[in-house]
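Ligand: magnesium ion. Inputs:
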Amino acid sequence: MLNIIIFGPPGAGKGTQSEYIKERYNLTYISTGQVLRAEIAAGSEIGLKVKDIIDHGGLASDEIVAEIIEKFIVNHSDSNGFLFDGFPRTVKQAEILDNLFKKYNLNLSGVLSLEVPEDILVERMLERGKTSGRADDNIDSIRHRFVEYDQKTKPVLDFYQNKNVLHPIHGVGTIEEIFDNICEVIERL
Ligand code: UDP
Ligand code: MG
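Predicted complex:
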């Protein structure tokens, strides 16, 4: 069973590459960002709680995303492998995921960490903002997303480095080139 986390700063291409990865390896995919945006669009209780935070580039609470992830795992207990996109985003969330894996008898195959320089990330997100309709693809929210990433998410890299499951991926190039880099790593897992 292949259980993969795709990791990287905002705009690194996690969502884009996930589309290819889940197809090739037949994985059950969840993007917590997508789920949260859907909750906001639906005006649910969770959506109302997180809307302002997310629009301004902040992070939803560990409790909220942990609940989303556990429900997802439980609802897909027949899965032959998971692909997590955009989660965990804090060390606390990484610990929670660790416990969920123990609880549901899963093991983490690897963390694919997309590496892209910040100027390219900003460029990509501003470009995406023209058509994505995402309230957080504007320069002020993007700046705040980087601050959150640096302070809260980056430490997750050390967490997985210490477990020897971290795999850096060169994240600059065409979509196909980056996907090749990813597949090379997955084949070795
Ligand atoms: N977000 C969050 N927790 C998550 C996933 C997403 O708080 O586990 C919020 C956060 O505000 C983030 C936004 O949703 O900036 C968009 O996340 P997504 O992963 O979709 O965007 P990306 O970082 O890939 O551009
Ligand atoms: Mg994304």
